[in-house]
Amino acid sequence: xxxxxxxxxxxxxxxxxxxxxxxxxxxxxxxxxxxxxxxxxxxxxxxxxxxxxxxxxxxxxxxxxxxxxxxxxxxxxxxxxxxxxxxxxxxxxxxxxxxxxxxxxxxxxxxxxxxxxxxxxxxxxxxx
Length: 128
Prior knowledge:
This is Small ribosomal subunit protein mS41. It is found in: Mitochondrion. Belongs to the mitochondrion-specific ribosomal protein mS41 family. This protein is mainly alpha-helical. The chain has a domain at about 35-100. About 55% of the residues lie in helices and about 5% in strands. It has helices at about 1-25, 40-45, 50-55, 60-65, 65-70, 75-90, 95-100; strands at about 115, 120. Strands 1-2 form a two-stranded antiparallel ribbon. Strand 1 and strand 2 (about 120) form a beta hairpin.
């Protein structure tokens, strides 16, 4: 029995090694650069009023956050995904002025859609 356990444990590190290095690299804390010197400056630069939605005082605290921490602070799914995406882009060396964008606006047309689609008038169904 002991030999089967050692065989199994010899396989496990080789399978999980890539996962450990990937998560360690993804969670690294980048140094502040350019006009961004604090967590609040970063959140202001990515927009969508993230500085009011997320309360973080220190730079190191911001980069330790994950999705569950953001959920505990009461952020919506779209806000969580956008902030984590922006943090990863900043880790990879991109400037927030290059990748920050506004949220998509709500659709103005509700219901079944417009009466003209693709240049053709759509006729309504006959009421019974």
